[in-house]
Amino acid sequence: MTSIARSLLTPVVDDSARGAVRPIVLLAGALLIAAAGMHAQQPLSLADADLRGATIFERSGATGMVLVVVRNREVMMKGYGEASPGSGAAPNANSLIRLCSISKVLAGDLLAELANEGKVALTDPLQRFAPPNTTVPKGAGGTPITLLELATHTAGLPREVGPYPADTPHFTFPDRAFRWTWLPERRLLARPGTAASYSNVGFDLLGDALASAANKPYAQLLEERIVRPLGLHDTTLTPSPEQCTRLLLGAGDEGPCTNTEESGASGGVYSTAADMARVLEYLLHVPGTSTRVAPAMTVYWKPSQLKSLRGLSHAGDPTGIGLGWIQLGNPDGPSVLMQKTGGGAGFLTYVALSVKRQTGIFVAVTDGKRRLRVDLFHEANNLLAAVANVPPLPPRARPARAARKRRSSVARPVKPPAQ
Question: Taking 50 as the threshold, does the pLDDT of residue 44 lie above it?
């Protein structure tokens, strides 16, 4: 008990004032109980976060899992299960992972950086970056597609250009030539800026636009603007043979570890737990981790501003849409977070940030023999809340299915499809 609390409880009064003492004592007692309750609620230690991670993995039915937790300057990286079925070896900090759609938040970061430098504007029409003699479709009233709408899934584009060709390696279709041939014939699903519908091809087109603005391939832009400045060792679109030997494998044959430059902005990035720890530190503005411009976590759309939202609710009910990021929770409350889901090529991935508490989480699992038996995104959100010492988000209003995979057929190395 502090000296202040003791003074509140000490009745230094004469007999005529005894009637006033009891309310003061009761009030002081209530304050002490409330204070004790506040101190009893402690943030989850990273050791306990490891135990929680092990429990999530045991319940999941996955082949392997990696978990990264960053809280201020604390970092935890853990691997569970097997790096490949029957290997007996657990994933580690240097195991190669397909980030899948988490690649989109890196594209959003590149967009924000180029916009900060005046090389592009968020309001720039996609038409500005189109190949010669290519017309980008417009919405009702001649409304153009802008870079902001591509980055927030509000461009009126479909999820994919069409079925993924059989026997094609993951994240290698459509290539640039194919999508720019496909685009002019496309009728938009909605007038740009009026509805949100998750789009992989939209982010591929955004990557093309950024590459055009920077006058260099998207892979080079990623390398120069994110990989090198953050000191990342294995984050790439062009994995080496040695890196491919470290790729985590699930229960199914997901085809070759190969060049994924064609889908670099939408889902093709490879990385590791060690690199993702550095990315989390950067995104959370942890002091001393990077001299780069701080990433933008701005929300550009609220659900109330849009006619509909489709494909954005895998981890919870959105309260905002940013540049690749989805906001969950009340933005004025302590539990608000920014998150991105990913899935495909035998992986399910997730990143979530409690920016207010400088706490973040990254998790990736590989397919097991059976369907995943836990809601990985919900479990990760609860773990993040416990580590950040904030109340967990309420249950989602609508049941959510796991993030749709980029394609479902088994990939086998063959020549690229004809264009």
Answer: yes
Q: How far is CA 206 from CA 131, 217, 232, 315, 414, in A?
A: 13, 12, 23, 24, 28
User: Phi/psi of residue 310, each to 5°?
Assistant: -135, 125
46-388: CATH architecture: 3-Layer(aba) Sandwich (3.40)
DSSP secondary structure string, 112-132?
Answer: HHHHHTTS--TT-BGGGGSPT
**Rounded distance between C-alpha atoms, residue 146 and residue 193, angstroms:** 9
Strands (DSSP E) contained in 178-232 are: 196-197
Task: Render pLDDT for 327-347 as a digit per residue (tens, 0 to 9).
Answer: 999 999 999 999 999 999 999
CA distance 297 to 353: 10
For residue 399, say if its preceding peptide bond is cis, omega within 30 degrees of 0: no
Q: 10 Å Cβ neighbour count for 355?
A: 16
Among 54, 51, 74, 33, smallest CA distance to 289 is for 74
Closest CA to 400 of 312, 291, 271: 312
Instruction: Please give the model's pTM, rounded to 2 decimal places.
Output: 0.86
Q: How far apart are CA 296 and CA 178, in angstroms?
A: 31
- Number of Cβ within 10 Å of residue 40's Cβ equals 7
State the residue for tokens 């319940």.
59
Tokens linked to 373: 């038996």
**Which are the contacts of 205, defined by CB distance < 8 A and separation ≥ 6?**
126, 150, 157, 179, 183
pLDDT digits (tens, 9 = 90+) for 389-399: 999 998 776 54
